[in-house]
Design goal:
Blueprint lengths: L6 H15 L3 H14 L5 H21 L1
Helix pairs in contact: 2-3
Amino acid sequence: MYREGSAELTEWVDAQKAALYDGRVAAVIAELTQRIKQLAPQQRSARDRLSSIQDYLTQRQAKMD
């Protein structure tokens, strides 16, 4: 994952927001799944945050499509 406050992280977040606004919720959930798998075990905080977002979107996907 990208360092907090980095331009790369900002760009990635903006891309995910754009995908959500375009109705591509499944694509964002898939991206989060991929990112979570890539995180090292010591990156628990990042994994927890991404998992929380993933769960939120998954529970509300039908309303967002």
